[in-house]
Amino acid sequence: MSKPAFDLVIVGVGGQGTLLASKILGRLALDAELGVKVSEVHGMSQRGGSVITHVRVGESVHAPLVALSGADYLVSFEALEAARAAAYLKPQGVLIVNTQRILPMPVISGAAHYPDDPISVPALSGHTVEAADALAMAMEAGSQKAVNLVLLGMLSRHLPFSDEAWKHAIAVSVPRATLATNIRAFEAGRNVTTTRNA
Amino acid sequence: MEKNHLIPVQAKTEQAEVRLLLGNEAVARGAWEAGVKVVSSYPGTPSTEITEAVAKYPEVNVQWAPNEKVATEVAFGAAMAGARAMTCMKHVGVNVAADPIFTAAYTGISGGLVICCADDPAMHSSQNEQDSRYYARAAHIPMLEPSDSQECKDFTKLAFQLSEELDTPIFVRLTTRISHARSVVALDERDEVGVKPYQKDPMKYVMMPGMARKRHLQVEKREDFLAEAANRMPINVVTLRDTAVGIVTSGVSYQYVRDALPDASTLKLGMVYPLPMKLIESFAAKVDKLIVIEELEGLIENDIKAAGIACEGKKFTGIQGELSVERVKAAVLGIPAPAPTADDLPARPPVLCPGCPHRGVFYEINRLGLRVMGDIGCYTLAALPPLSAMDACLCMGASIGMAGGAERAQGREFSKNSVAVLGDSTFIHSGVTALIDAVYNQESITVLILDNRITGMTGHQQNPASGKDIHGNPAPAVNLEKLCESCGVENVRVVDPFDLKATEKALREETARDGVSVIIARRPCVLLEKTTVPPYVIDGCKNCGACMKLSCPAIERQEDRVVINASLCIGCGMCAQVCPFNAIQEGVWAQ
Question: How far apart are CA B416 and CA B370, in angstroms?
Fold first, then answer.
């Protein structure tokens, strides 16, 4: 059996916790003895700007970046950012998206309009879309910071890693005090039924 | 100079512990394994995490320096005194450090000296995309370029070894996608190389013309030797596949080439200066067409062409921005790169955080209609709309010199409507020398130091004015008021930037005053010290828009009014100060 290989892009807004999500995915691949590269964003773009992280997993991974039209999965922490990163998805790629809206400065100041339904932009049509209010689910699990674990839970249903493997990767990646909350958030995402197909 | 082991890259052992490390963390690990003793750096994206990661190893003496020049001099001093030493900086930091670097190439070292510089193609967090490989050839310092985290570790160790064998500093060059990409690294133990005894050797280390002329001969000899030895170095790797096209490449570009053209033959350069010209020549003879794939400038291509070997490269890739798998495919195969999403979406630029103490300062600057000679830091974000409060931003510490120059051009009155704005760390880095210049040359500028007690934009590093060392332990803090006074500034005052009236008064009075003034706007970065004040609320909004001029991400305009986003507001209260109808009040904590 050939080893799992997939390309994944995580997008969101600086400060939303996208780096923890990619850290857990990297750990998962490392534990499974797969090749992996994770490209992160540091510096200026973290101050509330758009952020993007590339995760590539496979037997032999070269480029640290996912190619346009190359992502099997796009995980978006925010609705507008999903639309912005749509070009990364493969034709059969799956979008996992938090429906939360975070208004960018041009919208806040009235200079631009936030799209009525960003997930319905033409670039996302034809893709499998799994949308959920991950913020509400995270808060129910105990912390608004656990949005990343809710989204990973939703993603986990598509990836060939066992429940134990996920929980080990989470346990070694999050602060001990937040583990129970994070596991609750992960399971909420893993069991969520409110999905929709575009 | 007979060298036998120009040096195999270490094979991974079966039992080795593996970790997923950033390229930067892997450089740190490599330096630690190589027995590095002293590391001195100034933070700068994308290089910062190297020094932060080394600081976690107790065997290493690690420090933040006021700037890259001092950092390099400290590292050089340690290497001259027998220890393995390293300094790390971003590409533009090499400009600041260039003075000691060029002459360290003449003196050589005793303990190994590694200068790690991280370039930023596409300018993710930089003001230019200069190619630091030019420094290697200009200073005649060898340069290694890793292409993943494992190589970051291995090449750093190799760099220390080469440095001592060849008696020269060695550059390790990274780029953003190497520094900030995690990949698997096999760990080894630390090699305790110790510190060599100090030896006075003025012919080697005192660079007066008579000595320097002799040392320059050594530089040339060393470089000729290494250029020849490079042809046999195991880190310069030829892999023959399909011989229709042969690609010469290095660093992250190699990774793009492997994905874009998996069948193409490659010559992967682990050392990008000096080049292994005989190896390149023999590789060229084995392939039908030679193409050079390199980011930014066409240095390798030009050197190969100058050696009389036919090749192409920049004709296809250009010199702008980052390469990618798509761009390599477009360059070599003529396959057009897919277009990014064309949907008309609102941009999401980075912004000053809610509660950022810089915000009120720029609000008052705008109200007074002042010109801003800006600088490098979080506050550069004030250049973006809607604040749009910056006229110029050039390099670290330039604000003060620019303000002085503008006054020379436009006359003394010009400074009554201008202010030079820079942060505490930037002021220490290279602003203070320009302040001395302004006093000495009797200018009339007003300098605003935004003292948020930290180096913010690079991710919260301590600095000589913050009162803590790299480990967070207490350290002597530069007293900025006294420093400015001792430079001869007669008017130095401190304001709390959350107090908008006081900030406005200070700006108004000091810009009106003849002579050099300094205003220190002091309040810690909001990310350092969270307020304990509940979010503010708006009741009775007249929709006048006054508070919108603060450009706060927590204040949102809705159809007929303005609301405060309670999940973002940290309770700084600046909006309450600017509301002409007193409609904004401190809220109460939700139960």
Answer: 8
Nearest chain B residue (CA) to A35 = B184
In angstroms, what is the C-alpha Rg of chain B?
A: 27
Given an 8 Å threshold on Cβ–Cβ distance, is B180 in contact with A39?
yes
B58 touches chain A (CB under 8 A): no
For B358-522, which CATH superfamily applies? Answer: Thiamin diphosphate (ThDP)-binding fold, Pyr/PP domains (3.40.50.970)
A195 part of a folded domain: no
Q: Name the residue range of residue A70's domain.
A: 6-190
Mutate to test the interface with B, among A105, A114, A125 (most CBs of B within 10 A): A105
Q: In this structure, are residues A73 and A111 in contact, taking their beta carbons and an 8 Å threshold? A: no
The DSSP secondary-structure symbol of B467 reads: T
Half-sphere exposure of B45 (CA within 13 A, CB side): 26
ipTM surpassing 0.85: yes
Integer Cα distance of B409 and B116 in angstroms: 39
Cα separation, B590 vs A170, whole angstroms? 31
Which residues from chain A sit within 8 angstroms of residue B180, using beta carbons?
39-42
Which of B182, B326, B381 is closest, CB to CB, to A38? B182
CATH of the domain at A80: 3.40.920.10
The answer to whether the CB atoms of B45 and A42 lie below 8 A apart is yes
Q: What is the pLDDT along chain A (198 residues), one digit of tens a residue?
A: 467 899 999 999 988 889 999 999 999 999 999 999 999 876 666 678 999 999 999 988 999 999 999 999 999 999 999 999 999 999 999 999 999 999 999 998 888 999 999 998 888 888 999 999 999 999 999 999 999 999 999 999 999 999 999 999 999 999 999 999 999 999 999 999 865 554
**What is the distance in angstroms between the Cα of B182 and the nearest Cα belonging to chain A?**
5
The verdict on B202 touching A (C-beta cutoff 8 Å) is no
Q: How many CB atoms lie within 10 A of CB B319?
A: 13
Record: contact B553-A48, CB cut-off 8 A: yes
Residues of CATH 3.40.50.920 domain(s) within chain B?
Answer: 237-333
Token pair of B558 as six digits = 């809705």
Pick the CATH number of B237-333 from 3.40.50.1970, 3.40.50.300, 3.40.50.920, 1.10.10.10: 3.40.50.920
DSSP reduced 3-state for A38: strand
User: Which CATH architecture group holds B18-232?
Assistant: 3-Layer(aba) Sandwich (3.40)
Residues of A in contact with B177 (CB under 8 A): 39, 64-65
Please say whether the structural domain B536-586 has been given the CATH code 3.40.50.360. no
Distance CA B181, CA B66 (A): 28
Q: Which residues of B touch A43 (CB under 8 A)?
A: 45-46, 124-125, 457-459
**Residue contact B350–A121, C-beta within 8 A:** no
Number of domains making up chain A:
1
Residue of chain A nearest B352, judged by CA positions? A47
